[in-house]
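does this look right to u?? zinc ion version
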Amino acid sequence: MLQRFWGLLLATGGCLAGVEAADVRISKPEPDQVVRSHQLVLSGHAVAEDGPNMVSISRKLSSAANSTEIAQAMLDGNGDWTATVPLVPGTQLLVVTLAGATDQILVTRAGDAIGRQPPQKVRLQWVNGTDEKQQVDRQIRLVAERTLDPPPAEPQLSAFVDDVKGRVRQLFVERFQGVANLVVVDQDGPDVHTVNFLATDDGLFGQSPFDCGSVSRNEATEVHVGTYRRSMSNLGQWKPMQRGDLPSVRAEDLARCLARTAAHEVGHSLGLVGDPAVPAWKCLWMRGCEEGHNCFSITDTFDIADRFDDGWYLMDSGPRTTNRARLGEEFESRRSLVRRAPVFNTFNRSYLQIVHP
Ligand SMILES: [Zn+2]
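got this back:
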């Protein structure tokens, strides 16, 4: 009788607030994790009114693909279930069902070559060549001089340069805190990655070698401060920046941008994000696109994927990153009370936890 009652409600589009005929939830692991093992322990909770006491777990290789049942699990007296399921290489959707209720989760089995690496030491180097055009300090000063009204005078300009550099270091450390075991150092060495902040103005905000699995320690990344200086001279593209901003606000603006680019480029050198269109880079199982970035179109394959966010995820591509995300500002129309930090997405973080725990 109860079954028929539920059926009637569902058939007529009826709904009882807070009560469902059946419910199934996956509680572990967290969504969109990268794992090394070839099988995964999946667990959760389920309830069904007079229904079956066994959940079915199936795999799909895309949201639209047919599903293949890979395991079943009995509910215990509390409605909890646990199953060990085999994983195929790459990303797969695991779907748990019970009496018409479903929950699903993305899981990615990493390539077998991925493993734990020593902590990555990183040196932030501000490069001042002998030629004025090669002086990164001058580029930083020009941002203040050309985007502020009134332009700051000495010694404010020197303080501006120091503020930007100090803040970049802090923000860079914050981006990796709790994400990957990176250690910022002051001296070069065979196991030190150097981030060179250059005066370069070439249309690129930065570049870095791609290193699947983060197997090389002694690489170099570039951040092109001259490109930022030129771009910011077109202030209308950098709202909510305004000419009347205080120098301290502009220092924070520039520091946010430079730290973001440094973290993004170092991310490439740690192995983010493998791209099937560039087989030579390996790590193709990461399914990046646009030359090694979080793929905006991953939702075409897996509709629940949360890997791209217009630049609020650090490994989103440059052309798809808004200047607001670079500044950490939520709105173009006004300053936020507290700036928002861009982050590595869950998928990127769980990879980094494997290589640099
Ligand atoms: Zn990039």
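Residues 264, 268, 293, 318 surround zinc ion (CB under 6 Å). idk if thats expected tbh
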